[in-house]
Write a structure and sequence with these properties.
Keywords (chain A): Cell membrane, Lipoprotein, Membrane, Palmitate, Signal
Number of strands of chain A: 15
Helix content of chain B: over 70%
Strand content of chain A: 15-25%
Number of domains of chain B: 1
Chains: A alpha/beta (426), B mainly alpha (306), C mainly alpha (310)
Organism (chain A): Planobispora siamensis
Distance between the termini of chain A: 69 Å
Strand order of the largest sheet of chain A: 2-1-3-13-4
CATH architecture of chain B: Orthogonal Bundle
Structural class of chain A: alpha/beta
Radius of gyration of chain A: 24 Å
Shape of chain A: globular
Signal peptide (chain A): 1-18
Helix content of chain A: 40-55%
Radius of gyration of chain B: 26 Å
Largest interface: B-C, 109 and 111 residues
Oligomer: heterotrimer
Shape of chain B: flat
CATH superfamily of chain B: MetI-like
Protein name (chain A): Sugar-binding protein
Number of helices of chain B: 13
CATH architecture of the largest domain in chain A: 3-Layer(aba) Sandwich
Distance between the termini of chain B: 45 Å
Pfam family, one (chain A): SBP_bac_8
CATH superfamily of the largest domain in chain A: Periplasmic binding protein-like II
Order of helices and strands of chain B: HHHHHHHHHHHHH
Strand content of chain B: under 5%
Chain lengths: 426, 306, 310
């Protein structure tokens, strides 16, 4: 114990480790005087998206010799933690992707900077792919997503369920009856709502149903209260119907992870996004139907505005970051994104380059859903609170909580946040 | 070491005193500085922030709001009240079960039989397995088509059909309790063991000579000798139980239906994830008061003992 | 502070107070009970190790039988390869090793110095400081964690770009934010003070007559006699640092500084691939198991020592 050679060897090991670790981080920018432009993305769970992003970055880095974009990928569930911490430290990466509806919060907090891209460029993009706050553009996306009711023609027809169209979507009663029929036809559950997922999926997937019922997440007249919108009779009708899907066994509280239920034939219908279309096409081919969402009263609705790219206000190389964004908006990349991921390209020029979304593509109709049905989630800094409150509330409802009490409590929580922030100056 | 002849004894003594004082301060300064920086300042900050509407990221300066955060916690935040309740529920089960099971294991492995060290090691093994890994592992085992249900079904010949344990409000917390006890009990077994070893063998010998049976020996010799250990074990488990976070964050994120949200999990959700750091600080302080109460009870109990 | 006079660590090793072994007839049920309990404590770990070697469908297929705990069927290291393929797991391991080792070593030095001054030196303010240090024991980390995020985000740090010193604001995404808050530890100081207090003072006197300074006394007289307490403190600080989750969850986001526990949870959140997740879990459990099995006695002694406080 008096002589401690292990301590010495440990010290040496430590020194070596320290040397190698610092060596690693410095090694990247050896040689030229390139400025590093850091980038974060939420796509760690999605190899196809990573592939395209890396391709754009490689092309951009090769196209000039002043900037090197360096990406880092996070799992979606952890991404919010990462952004919150980094914003707290004033240490956000130059380039970051954000889910469209949370963008206003960051713009309000002044941690992201306006893009200042030429209008001739941004005008070509679908309105729901351009994120605006107080009249300025803070974010832009390569794509939008659209939800659809995935189903199989053979299953619907053999059970006598009418195949809906954009001209004549299912009504609420028709849809409900179809679910009951399909459940009785021997499926484990009639529909997979995707509720295995947590986080933003909940408001993204289910608040459009609420809106189709005639409710909303917030009073869009003033953006100062959720009273009436989220707990009025129409919202209650929505939540009761949603709850009944589970109590009647039409949907499962714990579906198979990874949206497998529809592919495994456990369910007849899946409320799913176009990003899942390629897998479903591969599995069911011509039998697959991508149907418009039901009209619960106020017309069919789907969520608009998805993940978009923005710039942090404290970026030391704003110029490089802006150049990267402008570079990455080329039709070929927007199209490539769509080809690899199945997402709806944000510009017509890009759509024409894709197989699926071109005029003769199998997914062409989804572009129509995006244009006709998309509702943007409320552009208010309070959205992050609204989102988590709505998710929690709907999970409670799914698990059998009293509907009116849950919705009233949700309204209280949202209004409290609005009040304690002086309505975010709205 | 060479001897250095001193000057006059009186001066050298004062001189030595001064050196001793200066050296002592030099020795404690690094630790004190770090404690102040990473415990003192944040603790004061917690207190200060809890009276404001501070947000982690905001263009506006925090405003003083008095006791509003505390009022909100107890009057208009049902999830917090649920978190308090869940935390107490967790502690109320885990504390006696883990302490009792730990003692039973300690008594078992305190016997002079062959191979007992191996069993000791095995019981202790989960303690060195990180809680994150344990939580991931048990999440997998608790799945509807997971290991637990397969074993249940097999052992009962298909009679018992398990459920998705972590997705049911009624079973999620008990499921977390089981894995928490599984992970932590070895730690307290060792502490009980240390307590057992401090009881002098002569007492047992004397009791045996007096004709006492095993149960009487336990009642009259072992148990009284374990009083100080008991207090320590109960307090450490209680404080650890109050701080329940990792299992929740990894396994259930507070759900289903808030059935597993806890004080610390809720504080992190509000204070960090939703950026309301002022409110989160208030929740942290409420947690602190709970721990303080437990510690004060501990002090009283230990005083009575000595 | 019930037993300050007793050096920690003495407790468990003594076997003199063990109860006499049961008679032979009672042993069979006793062993049966011990074995059953062992199964309860071992089965999840064995399941993890075994599953890490199997492809996912094999794992599920084996669940219903004893095969779930046996390395049978299609075995390979593919899951491990898969982990390395998808994330820089080695990097996370190195980060954790670095953070843990530095925290423990700095902690041993800083806390033992303070413990030395508080137990073996006479100076005004000693009692006050000791009381203050002990008082901080009552503040749980969870209480200060949130405000500390706010706080460390504003602390300055000196960095070198080449040879040029640069002052950076904010400690997030760094090694120091994972290390420095956990170096000074009131409980470690207390353990050191308690142990050092039990070493005869006459040794110091002798050294001082020889003209030794205080630091030399610490280094040449006290430290060499205090192996056990250094081992105890090292073990008690090693585990929580290696396992830390709540703190790095909030303050470390960049991959280059990420520790293993955050790494494995992120991995767990990706598309579920249970075989790979089990492989990853095994990977970060093995180092601790190896350390534990090689220093078993010291582990047990340390934890026993933590129980002797009060």
């Amino acid at each position: 114990m008096t002589r401690t050679p292990w301590l010495t060897s440990l010290g040496v090991a430590l020194a070596v480790l320290a040397a190698t670790t610092t060596g690693c981080s410095a090694g990247g920018r050896a040689g030229a005087e390139r400025v590093e432009v850091s980038m974060w993305s939420h796509s760690a769970g999605n190899p196809a998206e990573i592939e395209v992003i890396n391709r754009i970055i490689a092309d951009f880095n090769a196209s000039q010799d002043r900037y090197t974009v360096k990406p880092e990928f996070f799992p979606q569930a952890a991404y919010n933690d990462a952004i919150v911490a980094a914003a707290t430290a004033g240490d956000l990466p130059c380039l970051l992707d954000m889910d469209g509806p949370v963008m206003p919060n960051w713009a309000w907090a002044r941690v992201i900077a306006p893009l200042d891209l030429p209008e001739s460029l941004t005008d070509q993009f679908l309105p729901s792919t351009v994120g605006r706050w107080n009249g300025r553009i803070y974010s832009i996306g390569y794509w939008d997503a659209a939800l659809a009711m995935f189903a199989r023609r053979s299953v619907l027809e053999s059970n006598g369920v009418r195949v809906p169209t954009m001209d004549r979507p299912w009504t609420k009663d028709e849809f409900d009856a179809a679910l009951v029929t399909l459940k009785n036809a021997g499926f484990e559950h009639a529909i997979d709502l995707g509720n295995y997922d947590t986080g933003e999926w909940w408001p993204y997937a289910y608040s459009p149903m609420l809106q189709s019922f005639g409710g909303d997440l917030i009073d869009r007249g003033t953006y100062r209260t959720a009273q009436g919108a989220l707990n009025g009779p129409r919202a209650v009708a929505f939540a009761q119907w949603f709850q009944s899907l589970f109590t009647r066994g039409l949907a499962s509280k714990s579906p198979t992870p990874d949206r497998q239920d529809f592919l495994l034939g456990n369910v007849a219908i899946a409320w799913n996004g176009n990003w899942s279309a390629p897998d479903a096409i591969e599995k069911y081919g011509e039998d697959l139907l991508l149907l418009p969402p039901p009209d619960f009263g106020e017309g069919p609705k789907i969520g608009g505005a998805s993940w978009q790219w923005g710039l942090s206000a404290n970026c030391p190389s704003l110029d490089g970051a802006r150049r990267y964004i402008a570079f990455s908006l080329k039709p070929e990349y927007v199209a490539a994104f769509s080809e690899e991921t199945g997402l709806i390209p944000a510009t017509d020029a890009a759509a024409a380059l894709t197989e699926e979304y071109g005029p003769d593509g199998r997914l062409h109709e989804l572009v129509g859903f995006s244009r006709e049905y998309a509702v943007i989630r409320p552009p208010t800094p309070a959205y992050s609170v609204i989102s988590s409150v709505f998710e929690k509330t709907m999970q409670d409802v799914m698990n059998g909580a009293d509907v009116q009490t849950s919705l009233d409590s949700a309204v209280d929580q949202i209004d409290f946040n609005l009040e304690s922030n002086d309505n975010y100056g709205l | 070491m060479t001897a250095r002849p001193g000057t006059s004894p009186g001066r050298s003594r004062t001189h030595a005193r001064a050196i001793e004082r200066r050296s002592a301060w030099a020795f404690v300064t690094p630790a004190l500085f770090l404690l102040m920086l990473f415990l003192g300042v944040p603790a004061l900050l917690a207190l200060g922030l809890s009276f404001t509407n501070a947000r982690l990221i905001s263009p506006n300066a925090p405003e003083f709001t008095g006791l509003e955060n505390y009022v909100r916690a107890f009057t208009s935040d049902p999830v917090f009240l649920r978190s308090l309740l869940n935390t107490f529920y967790f502690a109320a089960v885990v504390v006696p079960v883990q302490a009792g099971l730990g003692l039973a294991l300690a008594l078992l492995v305190n016997q002079r039989i062959r191979g007992v060290n191996i069993f000791r090691t095995v019981f202790f093994l989960p303690v060195v397995t990180s809680m994150v890994v344990v939580s991931i592992l048990w999440t997998f085992m608790y799945q509807e088509d997971g290991l637990i249900n397969s074993m249940l079904s097999r052992m009962t010949g298909g009679l018992v059909e398990g459920t998705a344990w972590l997705q049911q409000p009624s079973t999620a917390m008990p499921a977390i309790i089981i894995l928490s006890v599984w992970q932590g009990v070895g730690f307290h077994m060792v502490i009980w063991l240390a307590g057992l070893q401090t009881i002098p063998a002569e007492l047992y010998e004397a009791a045996t000579v007096d004709g006492a049976g095993a149960w009487q020996r336990f009642r009259n010799v072992t148990w009284p000798g374990l009083r100080p250990t008991l207090v320590f074990v109960l307090v450490t488990i209680t404080i650890a139980a109050f701080g329940l976070f990792v299992q929740i964050d990894v396994m259930t994120r507070g759900g289903p239906l808030d059935s597993t949200t806890t004080i610390i999990f809720h504080a992190v959700r509000k204070g960090f994830r939703e950026q309301e750091v002022g409110y989160g600080a208030a929740l942290s302080l409420i947690f602190f008061v709970l721990v303080l109460i437990v510690s004060l009870i501990q002090r009283r109990l230990t005083r009575e003992n000595t | 502070m019930a037993t300050i006079d007793q050096a920690p660590g003495a407790a468990v090793t003594a076997s003199r107070t063990r109860e006499a072994g049961p008679r032979a007839s009672g042993r069979v049920p006793l062993y049966l009970l011990l074995v059953l309990l062992s199964l309860f404590f071992l089965f999840p770990v064995v399941f993890m190790l075994v599953s890490s070697l199997k492809p996912d469908d094999q794992i599920f297929q084996d669940l219903g039988s004893g095969a779930a705990f046996l390395p049978v069927g299609e075995l390979s290291l593919d899951n491990y390869a898969g982990v390395f393929d998808r994330v820089p797991a080695i990097r996370f391991l190195l980060n954790s090793v670095f953070v843990t080792v530095v925290t423990v070593l700095l902690g041993l030095f800083v806390n033992s110095l303070a413990g030395f001054a508080l137990s073996r030196m006479e100076w005004r303010g000693r009692k006050l400081i000791l009381a203050l240090v002990i008082a901080t024991l009552i503040i749980p980390f969870e209480t200060v964690a949130l405000p500390m995020v706010y706080w460390v985000a504003k602390l300055p740090w000196l960095e070198f770009e080449g040879l040029r010193p640069v002052i950076e604001q904010g400690w997030l995404n760094s090694y120091q934010v994972q290390i420095l808050p956990f170096v000074a530890n009131a409980f470690s100081i207390f353990l050191f003070a308690q142990y050092f207090g039990s070493i005869p003072r006459s040794l110091d006197e002798a050294a001082r007559v020889d003209g030794c300074g205080w630091f030399r006394i610490y280094r040449k007289v006290v430290v060499p006699l205090s192996g056990p307490v250094f081992a105890t403190v090292a073990i008690l600080t090693f585990l929580p640092v290696w396992n830390s989750y709540l703190w790095p969850l909030m303050v470390v986001q960049e991959e280059s500084k990420r520790p293993v526990m955050i790494g494995v949870q992120y991995f767990n959140q990706l598309t579920p691939a249970w075989g790979e997740t089990m492989a990853y879990s095994t990977l970060i459990t093995i180092p601790v198991l190896v350390v534990f099995l090689s220093f078993q006695r010291a582990f047990v002694r340390s934890i026993a020592a933590s129980g002797v406080k009060g």
